[in-house]
Amino acid sequence: MGYIYIAHNAHMQKGEKMSQGLKNRVWIYSQTNLPTRFGQFKVIVFRNDFDDKEHLAIVKGNIGDGKNIPVRMHSECLTSEVLGSLKCDCREQLETALQYIAEKGRGIVLYLRQEGRGIGLGNKIRAYSLQEAGYDTVEANHILGFPDDLRQYDVAAAMLHHLGISSVKLLTNNPKKIQGVEEFGIEVVERVPIQINHNPVNKFYLMTKAKKSGHMLEFEEKYPQLRLLKKVSN
To answer: Looking at residue 50, what is its pLDDT?
Structure first.
């Protein structure tokens, strides 16, 4: 059972005004049908003049009136999705979202090119090195001069507007994603939890996201205190 998130009308009106300018700066570049092991999807590549990156909408079924559409906003994670890294749960979240939407018969996964919560692949690897020394994921970002999370959801909201989406059932554990799309005129009518069973490697990482970044994850154990193993220069 998902948590029902009710938007404030004034907030939505502001977002609707902001979305018009955004939509003009994001456009569809290419699209095709794509058979996958999760079923048949349409993939739509978007370009924009914000970050000069190509972001992808993976669409299942008939979107219809664009209301109450299951949506996952997923950030790129090469280490997990390509290399099978155990340090996070990104691949499992992506696959769970695709399977969920396939079973529902309609919905969208937005695959956003925001590696490492927005700091990029190279800096994510630097952060991993700091984590090996005993810093948590948030502390590592701060040492490198970044906030907890650099991701933005303006382009994601514009993509949804292009697809005719006005309200979504958002598959997320992250309250910032709810706020991020609602600021640009997309109403979140429901949050669908997407918690993945942790493994021994990523357990502390996920607990840190819950404790320090506000992710809506549940754990039976208390948050541990780690001892720094060594000093690492950045």
So the answer is: 84
- 117: DSSP letter: G
CATH number at residue 92: 3.40.50.10990
**Is 4 domain-assigned?**
no
Kindly report the backbone phi and psi dihedral angles of residue 45, in degrees, each rounded to the nearest multiple of 5, phi listed first: -90, 125
* Cα atoms in the Cβ-side hemisphere of radius 13 Å centred on 42: 16
For the chain, the domain total comes to 1
Summary mean pLDDT of the chain: 86
| Residue 151 annotated to the active site | yes
Q: Is residue 24 part of a domain?
A: yes
Residue tagged active-site, from 72, 89, 136, 149: 149
Q: Are 158 and 22 in contact (CB under 8 A)?
A: yes
Range of the domain at 107: 9-114+151-196
Whether 183 maps to a domain, the answer reads yes
Both tokens of 212, joined, read 């320090």
- pLDDT, tens only, 44-88: 999 999 888 999 999 999 999 999 999 999 999 999 999 999 999
Please confirm, yes or no, whether 149 is among the known catalytic residues: yes
**pLDDT tens digit sequence for 101-125:** 999 999 999 999 999 999 999 999 9
Q: Is 107 helix (H, G, I), strand (E, B) or coil?
A: strand
